[in-house]
Amino acid sequence: MFTNLESVDATSTGAKYIKAGIHTVKVTKVESSKATNPNARTPYIDFHMEAGDGSIGKARIFGDREGQSPEAAEYKAKMLKRLLMACGVTDFKDYIKACKETVGATVTVAFAEREYWTNDDNDMPVIRKAIDYKWPVKDGEQFDPSWNKSMSQEDLRAYNDALEATGTANADKTAAVDDMPF
Predict the structure, then answer these.
(1) CA 157 to each of CA 100, 117, 121, 162, 166: distance values in angstroms, whole numbers, following the listed order
(2) What's the 3-state SS for 18-58?
(3) The dihedral sign for the CA sequence 147, 152, 153, 159
């Protein structure tokens, strides 16, 4: 039945991901953390999106959590409602139904790059970049590079401390000194 199973490469998904910028996308699926990650500390809803070039991304909107400020709750609700409205939703009485109504909608949204640090598979500190959904954009709105976020000074210090703890930071500093022309 599967004569080519040994030769098929199943390690590559072939997925192309949305990059930072403004994109017209179609909402292809909506999932809640309750279904995909029931142990998530803060609940969320993922709006899966696909751009015209086939690249994929998602808008993750976080829900309310215990102990959050009223301002945070309002910000999250506004973020969700703006996306729902941009997708053409008009009835907001039942947020689950409203979210499901976005599937199939085409909307223009902004994605931006966010820098962070983590440990790789070898437990070494590395700096990575993620692409995050920002908001629906107005007609004619242009991407602003200031929407991209570099690591904060505090995070950069934590990364450097973690790097030093591995012993590789000192080796790098020594190499740099040895390469000096004077």
Answers:
(1) 42, 11, 21, 9, 14
(2) CCCEEEEEEEEEEEEHHHHCCCCCCCEEEEEEEECCCCEEE
(3) negative
pLDDT over 70 at 9, yes or no:
no
Written as six digits, the tokens of 161 are: 């401390």
Strand partners, 133: 111
Number of helices (H) and strands (E) in the chain: give both, helices first.
Answer: 5, 5
Distance CA 131, CA 136 (A): 15
Contact 49, 57 (CB under 8 A): yes
Rounded distance between C-alpha atoms, residue 180 and residue 176, angstroms: 7
| pLDDT the model gives residue 4 | 72
Q: Does the global pTM surpass 0.90?
A: no
Q: And the tokens for 19? A: 């990059």
- ∠ at Cα 132 (79, 95), nearest 5°? 30
3-state class of 136 per DSSP? strand
Q: What is the per-residue burial (b if ≥16 Cβ within 10 Å, else e) of 96-125? A: eebbebbeebebebbbbbbbebeeeeeeeb
